[in-house]
Amino acid sequence: MQKPDTSLDEIDFAIISSLQNDGRTSFTVIAEKLNVSIGTISTRFNRLLDEKVITIVGRVDPGKVGFGSYAHVAVYVRPAALKESVAQKIALMPEVSFLAGTFGDYDLEVDVMCRDNDHLVDFVNSISVIEGVYHTKTTIYFKVYKYAQPDLGLLDK
């Protein structure tokens, strides 16, 4: 198991968990729940932000805001030495919501949100011309059943 980059304790995890449940939860409510001061919550929250353990985002339902084509693109890179360069170029593209290097059938896993299928075709064509991209395989998600952050309770098992 990979060791975390930063040292987090039970209070840090409880703060993160509370905010994952409802990002608008006040420091007062969290402090009362954890039986600590508001200052403790504020200080820890700011440290978590500074250390980039958490970020503040407004998560949207892609379909409800106009992203009608949500897809997974498997990218095959040849030669393998270009994998990092290809990943860096793809990471800059605004359609990309998730990008990871993989071991297995393909080299990069890319999740994208596009306005429609024409936009998706344009996106796939734009990555296909990146030096090192040998082949792509696109799977369109027709319905997303769950879109969430990891449950921190899984770390206790």
Q: Can you tell me the CATH architecture of the largest domain? A: 2-Layer Sandwich
Which strand-content bin applies to the residues?
A: 15-25%
Number of separate helices: 5
What is the H/E string? HHHEHEEHE
CATH topological fold name of the largest domain: Alpha-Beta Plaits
CATH superfamily of the largest domain: Lrp/AsnC effector binding domain/regulation of amino acid metabolism (RAM) domain
Helix content: 25-40%
Main beta-sheet strand count, sense and barrel state: 4 strands, antiparallel
Kindly provide the radius of gyration, computed on alpha-carbon positions and rounded to a whole number of angstroms: 20 Å
Uncertain segments are none
Shape verdict: elongated
Strand-helix topology:
Layout: H1 10-21, H2 27-34, H3 38-50, E1 69-77, H4 83-91, E2 96-101, E3 108-114, H5 117-128, E4 133-141
Descriptive report:
The protein has 157 residues and is an alpha+beta fold. It folds into two domains: 10-50, Arc Repressor Mutant, subunit A; 62-141, 2-Layer Sandwich (Alpha-Beta Plaits). 34% of the residues lie in helices and 20% in strands. It is built from five helices and four strands; from the N terminus they run αααβαββαβ. The chain has a four-stranded antiparallel beta sheet. The longest helix is centred in the N-terminal third of the chain and has 13 residues, at 38-50. The protein is elongated and about 55 Å long. The two termini are 13 Å apart.
